[in-house]
Amino acid sequence: GQNIDQPTEMTATEGAIVQINCTYQTSGFNGLFWYQQHAGEAPTFLSYNVLDGLEEKGRFSSFLSRSKGYSYLLLKELQMKDSASYLCAPQAGNNRKLIWGLGTSLAVNP
Amino acid sequence: ETGVTQSPTHLIKTRGQQVTLRCSSQSGHNTVSWYQQALGQGPQFIFQYYREEENGRGNFPPRFSGLQFPNYSSELNVNALELDDSALYLCASSSDRVSTDTQYFGPGTRLTVL
Question: Contact at 8 Å (CB) between A89 and A36?
Fold first, then answer.
């Protein structure tokens, strides 16, 4: 079957670094997306990893290990506006569908 | 701004009624996916349309149906509404010309069924 596991909630302090982990089990894995979703809004694209390793994009970085079925999203220099849900979404199968987890709700405190 | 729009923003219906939600994709995006998202949950895949044909369907009953038009717009129709259909409905467009098939979401339609 297909399964995605990420923590339900995390809390961090403004200015700090936080790592959100995601483990997945899919068949026909293509790549993995991370999306950010603020309450009541649509998900917005953050990153896409297809090869093993770290992809850095400003304050956000995403890591992938295909052999371990593992990814993480690293957020540096946290800001209050980073309080949101972070969704890990592996892409799998010939039709390249996204499989969505429940998301990690991150609260950034002053 | 993703260039994907949805209408209406909010909608209130009663049980048993029918509803049509609309989505306008980014120009040139030939694939549209529809999702249902309940509060506190991740998006649940309803179906995907590619070049006006259904290209995969999630675990939703036949009363959920869709259409995609040549002008990059699409519709989600839900018949015989049930209370559990209350959710945020999202459409996301993507292009098979881009290897990653990154999906760009519209702002969603919040449907409340009373």
Answer: no
